[in-house]
Specification:
Order of helices and strands: HEEEHEHEHEHHEHEHEHHHEHH
Radius of gyration: 29 Å
Largest sheet: 8 strands, parallel
Helix content: 40-55%
Number of helices: 13
CATH class of the largest domain: Alpha Beta
Strand order of the largest sheet: 3-4-5-6-7-8-9-10
Shape: globular
Distance between the termini: 96 Å
CATH architecture of the largest domain: Alpha-Beta Barrel
CATH topology of the largest domain: TIM Barrel
Strand content: 5-15%
CATH superfamily of the largest domain: NADP-dependent oxidoreductase domain
Bound molecules: NADP nicotinamide-adenine-dinucleotide phosphate
Structural class: alpha/beta
Length: 372
C-alpha cells in the first residue's frame, strides 16, 4: 500500500527515518481506532433506539408528550379567539384522594386541559393539583359545568363562585350548561319552563363572561333541536362548544356533520366507552386490527380517531401509565380512519350515558322530536 503514511522505505535509510515512520504508523492506527469506535457507538445507538421502539410497539405521536409530527391540530380556535387544547384529562368518577395525583401526572406528561364539573365533587383537589404544579394558570385550560339545580339566573353566579373558590382560580376558561334540563331549586324535579327556554340561563352566563369570571361559555348534552331552541334567541355569545357523548358505540355522525357546518366544536365525552364499556371498546376487531398494524394501543387508536374527526377528546384515567398513553395522538392513515369510521357508524347507536330514567323523566333527554 502506498500513501502519505505508508511510504515504502529504502533498505539503507537511516534509523531516524525509520523512527519517524513508526511514529506515523502509530498515529494512523490511533486515528483509525477512534474513527471505528465512534462509528460503532453511533450504530449501537441507532440499533438500540429502533429496537426499543419496535419492542414497546410505540410510534412517534403527532402531538402530546413527544410532539414530533403536527399534522393533527393540538388546539382549536374558539369564537373568542381562545385556543382550546385538543386532548383533555376528564375527571368524572376520579375519586377524591386519587384525582389530585391524576391531574399532577397529566400536567407532568404535558396535558394542559382539565375537564371537570361541580357535580363531580372533586374540584378542590383538582384546584390544589393545578396550583401545586407550578404551571402558570394561563397555560392551563380549565372547564367546569353548571349543574341542573342552578339554572335559575339568580343561582348561577353563586354556583360559579363556589366552583371558582374550590378550584382556587379567579376565572374559568370554559363553563358549560351540564345538561339541557333544569331542576327546581334543591330537588331533582324538572323545571319545565326553564328547560323549555334556556335563554334566561344563557343570558346570565353571558353577563358572567363580561364580568371576567368565565372566558367562554358552552353547552353539553344538547341535540340539534335543543341547540336551535337556544340559538333562536338574540345571543350575545354563541355556544363555544357542545360536549356530548361520542365513542365507537355512539359516534353521532349527523350531529358531528351539522356542528361542522355550523362552526360549533364538539367535545367527545366517554371517548373510550366510559367505565361501563371501555373493555368492549378496546376489543372491537377493527380497533385491534388498526392497533396491530400501526403498533399503537387500542386506546390510542380510538383517541386518535376522535381527533381526526375534528373533536376535542376527554379521556378519563387515574392510572399514570394510561394517562401518558392517552396523550399520544397519531394521525391515522386515511384508509384505516375510514374503515373505523364506517364500522362505528354502521351499527345501531347505543348510548353509554343517559340519565333520563334515573331522573324519573317520562321522555328521553336526547329525543330530537321533543316539543319545547
Ligand atoms: N358532559 C357530560 O355530561 C359528561 C358525561 C360523561 C363524561 N364527561 C367527561 O368526559 C370524561 C371521560 O368520560 P368517561 O369518564 O365517561 O369515560 P372514558 O374516558 O371513555 O373511560 C374512562 C374509563 O376508561 C379507563 N381507561 C382510560 N384510559 C384507558 C386506557 N388507555 N386503557 C384501558 N382503560 C382505560 C378508565 O380507567 P382508569 O381511570 O381506572 O384508568 C375508566 O374506567 C369524563 O371524565 C368527564 O370529564 C362528561
Amino acid at each position: 500500500m502506498s500513501s502519505f503514511f505508508y511510504k515504502p522505505l529504502a533498505a539503507d535509510e537511516s534509523g531516524e527515518l525509520f523512527e519517524e515512520t513508526r511514529r506515523r504508523r502509530t498515529h494512523v492506527k490511533k486515528i483509525l481506532f477512534h474513527f471505528v469506535a465512534v462509528a460503532a457507538f453511533l450504530y449501537g445507538i441507532y440499533l438500540g433506539t429502533s429496537g426499543l421502539l419496535k419492542l414497546s410497539g410505540k410510534r412517534r405521536p403527532c402531538h402530546g408528550p413527544t410532539n414530533l409530527n403536527s399534522t393533527l391540530p393540538s388546539h382549536y380556535t374558539l369564537p373568542s379567539g381562545d385556543k382550546i387544547p385538543t386532548v383533555a384529562l376528564g375527571v368524572w368518577q376520579a375519586a377524591r384522594g386519587e384525582v389530585g395525583a391524576a391531574v399532577s401526572s397529566a400536567l407532568k406528561v404535558g396535558y394542559r386541559h382539565i375537564d371537570g364539573a361541580w357535580a363531580y365533587g372533586n374540584e378542590a383537589e383538582v384546584g390544589q393539583a393545578v396550583k401545586s404544579s407550578g404551571i402558570p394558570r394561563e397555560d392551563i385550560w380549565i372547564t367546569s359545568k353548571l349543574w341542573n339545580t342552578f339554572h335559575a339566573p339568580e343561582d348561577i353566579e353563586p354556583a360559579l363562585d363556589d366552583t371558582l373558590t374550590k378550584l382556587d382560580t379567579p376565572y374559568l376558561d370554559l363553563y358549560l350548561i351540564h345538561w339541557p334540563v333544569a331542576f327546581k331549586k334543591n330537588t331533582n324535579e324538572v323545571d319545565e319552563e326553564l328547560t323549555a327556554n334556556p335563554y334566561p340561563t344563557w343570558a346570565k352566563l353571558e353577563e358572567l363572561v363580561d364580568k371576567g369570571k368565565i372566558r367562554n361559555i358552552g353547552i353539553s348534552n344538547f341535540n340539534i333541536a335543543r341547540i336551535k331552541n337556544l340559538t333562536a334567541n338574540p345571543l350575545k355569545y354563541k355556544p363555544a362548544v357542545n360536549q356530548v357523548e361520542l365513542n365507537y358505540f355512539n359516534p353521532q355522525p349527523e350531529l358531528l356533520q351539522w356542528s361542522k357546518e355550523n362552526g360549533l366544536i364538539l367535545e367527545a365525552y366517554s371517548p373510550l366507552g366510559s367505565t361501563k364499556q371501555v373493555k368492549e371498546a378496546l376489543n372491537v376487531p377493527i380497533v385491534l386490527n388498526i392497533s396491530h398494524r400501526l403498533g399503537i394501543t387500542p386506546a390510542q387508536v380510538l383517541i386518535s380517531w376522535h381527533v381526526k374527526r375534528g373533536t376535542v377528546v376527554l379521556p378519563k384515567s387515574v392510572t399514570t401509565s394510561r394517562i401518558e398513553e392517552n396523550f399520544a395522538v397519531f394521525d391515522l392513515p386515511d384508509d384505516l380512519f375510514t374503515k373505523l369510521e364506517t364500522a362505528a357508524t354502521s351499527h345501531p347507536p347505543q348510548r353509554v350515558v343517559n340519565p333520563s330514567q334515573g331522573w324519573g323523566l317520562d321522555y328521553d333527554i336526547f329525543d330530537e322530536n321533543l316539543p319545547y
